[in-house]
Each structure stands twice: as C-alpha cells, then as structure tokens.
Amino acid sequence: MGELFHVGQCPGCRQGWLILQRNLSSGDIYAHCEECETGFITPDDLLWPLNGFLTVLEEYDYETENPDKEEISRTVWANFIVKKVPVE
Ligand SMILES: [Zn+2]
Predict the structure, then answer these.
(1) Cβ atoms within 10 Å, residue 82
(2) Is 79 helix (H, G, I), strand (E, B) or coil?
(3) Which domain of life is it from (predicted)?
(4) Cα–Cα distance measured from residue 54 to residue 81, given in angstroms and rounded to the nearest whole number
C-alpha cells in the first residue's frame, strides 16, 4: 500500500501522467510518463526544449520504486505534486 505522486501531464505526448519514481541505482527521483515511457530528472526538463530520456532503453535498465512523500519533499519535485493516487 502506498501512493503515487503525479506532477502533471507529460509535455511530450500530452496524454500520460508524469508519476514520480525512484531510480534504485542512482537514487534519483524522476518523473516518468506512463504513456510514452519518457523520464524527466528535474522540473526544468519539462520545459521546452524538452530534456527527457527514454526509460525503456537498455542503459536505463534499473529497478524503481514509488518514493514516499518524505523522500519527495527533499527533492526538486517537492512543490510540483498535483495529485496523489493510492495504490495497492
Ligand atoms: Zn508522455
């Protein structure tokens, strides 16, 4: 049981929500689009020109988990949460 933290709509595909995920290899918390699989490391990366990376590439083969609010509050994403969604 936990929560997913959304930080808005994906500026790349304009369809998916950006969900905060923790990269367990680097410890980075980044926004991940569930539709086009693009990742954004910082909120600035969401502004044009977009600075996303394709999370499905092999070089980004890492485990992720859903960060909790405490973890997010220590990152650049702290003020960008627009929606919380409970998950099992
Ligand atoms: Zn997208």
Answers:
(1) 11
(2) coil
(3) Bacteria
(4) 22
Q: How many domains does the chain have?
A: 1
What's the gap in Å between 41 CA and the centre of ligand 1? Answer: 14
- The answer to whether residues 80 and 41 touch, using CB atoms and an 8 Å cutoff, is no
CA of 35 to the centre of ligand 1 (A): 5
71 within a domain of the structure (yes/no):
yes
**Ligand 1 mean position, distance from CA 17 (Å):** 7
Task: Note the pLDDT tens digit of each residue in 34-78.
Answer: 999 999 999 999 999 999 999 888 777 789 999 999 999 999 999
Q: Does residue 85 fall inside a structural domain?
A: no
- Residue 11 scores a pLDDT above 80: yes
Residue 8 domain flag: yes
- Cα separation, 61 vs 24, in Å, equals 10
